[in-house]
Amino acid sequence: LTHLLACAFGTPPWVAGGGGWVEVPLLVTVLPPQWDRGGGITIIIQMANVGPPFVTRGGGFRPGLLKEVAVPPLLVWGGGMACLLLSFLWNHTSVIAGKSHSIAFLILTFFLSLVDCTSSVTFLPFMMQLHPPYTTRGGGGEGLSGLIPALPPLGQGGGGSSCANVSSEVNPPTGNGGGGRTIFQLETQYLPPKFSRGGGFLLMTAMMLTCPPAFFWGGGQPKVWELSQQQLFPSNIVLNSFDQIADEAAGPPLNSGGGGSKDPKRPGDILPPKVSWGGGKLTFIYLLITCPPSLTRGGGPSVQSYSCLPYGHTAYHLAATLSSMANPLACPPATLRGGGGGGGMGFLTTVGTGFGAYNMAIAVMSPCPLLQQSPPPDAIGGGAWVLFTGTLTYPPLMAGGGGGSRSRSALVWYPPLEQLGGGVGALLMFPLVNPPRLFKGGGDCSLQCP
């Protein structure tokens, strides 16, 4: 039970962002501005990156202003309330300047993303107070928080669509019986998912609220320094006795002077040699950390609807859901393997960029892309996105792990560079998507493609 609570402690960080994003394919059909919804959500998520600087700078300018024990519970409760409100207000719209906008959805999505972004600088300091095995379990829970929210939408389904022959009157008949005619045209009618969109947000709320009991548990656990004080004196006696035996067996020291001898070095005093990388190598590492997120977190999600919806809602649903699983699934191999070679990371980045270029080209061709009528359209539309996200998720993790083991600066700059890449990608794509200039949307039935 203790280890399960430690795992639940680290679960909320990615539940907010990952769980909200996988619901987007079910929202673009009902929320304005429909196909352009992905670009707006991407910008909202990047705006939430103001959270980490606020927390770190607030603690620096006013020490004691933000308690590391109090901030994580506030974030979790705030994220849980945002999820709960989304389950009831997700379809609420407001009219601004004569156009309908989903303001409530965007505001609540911002607060969810704020929990996602800020947890990286608030949860870890709290977890570091606990005993190391519990910290490891908390890290495992953080990895599961990106995988678990994607599982319910797989059962929820993409909803799908069907074509209906709808009649409408053109030039209604006048009083003398003249004029008026009826035309028939195909229109798209969207099918509901297996359970409601509000139900999906309620499941996210339940996931978020599994964390507060873990905070109460963590507050009652002995801290790392308390455990180390209990073990400190016996450990020193054992280490000193082994050092003395080793010195006696080796004979008198070579530089024994009359003024006394220096204390022998203990095994803990021998530090590993620090290996620093040159400017060119660090630049390459920084590019690997910055460029892939600009595609997977910024530019790519902004046009995902244009690239996938022409192949059907199932393709868009699978692309969003399976792509969200790429990051947690890539973490264990990257952690076990450590820092990879520069050639391998560069190769994966090149291949992933190629898939991204293909997805961008398909989005430009929307609503009549290549292979639209080829079977199976779901695999064609969603498969490229899964490969794109999977190949570009792995290199930054490898670069951060390998760089951190050799250069402290590479590890320190990893989070801000990753967030910078996602923000730049989202900002570059936003003017092209909102309002759409380069990309065009369309219905599944009303448009006749050659």
Automatic annotation (TrEMBL):
The chain crosses the membrane at residues 74-91, 103-128. GO terms for molecular function: riboflavin transmembrane transporter activity. It catalyses: riboflavin(in) = riboflavin(out). It is found in: Cell membrane. Its main location: membrane. It holds the Pfam family SLC52_ribofla_tr. It is a multi-pass membrane protein. One of its GO terms (cellular component) is plasma membrane. Residues 1-17 form the signal peptide. Keywords: Cell membrane, Glycoprotein, Membrane, Signal, Transmembrane, Transmembrane helix, Transport. Residues 249-270 are annotated as: Disordered. Plasma membrane transporter mediating the uptake by cells of the water soluble vitamin B2/riboflavin that plays a key role in biochemical oxidation-reduction reactions of the carbohydrate, lipid, and amino acid metabolism. Belongs to the riboflavin transporter family. This is Riboflavin transporter.
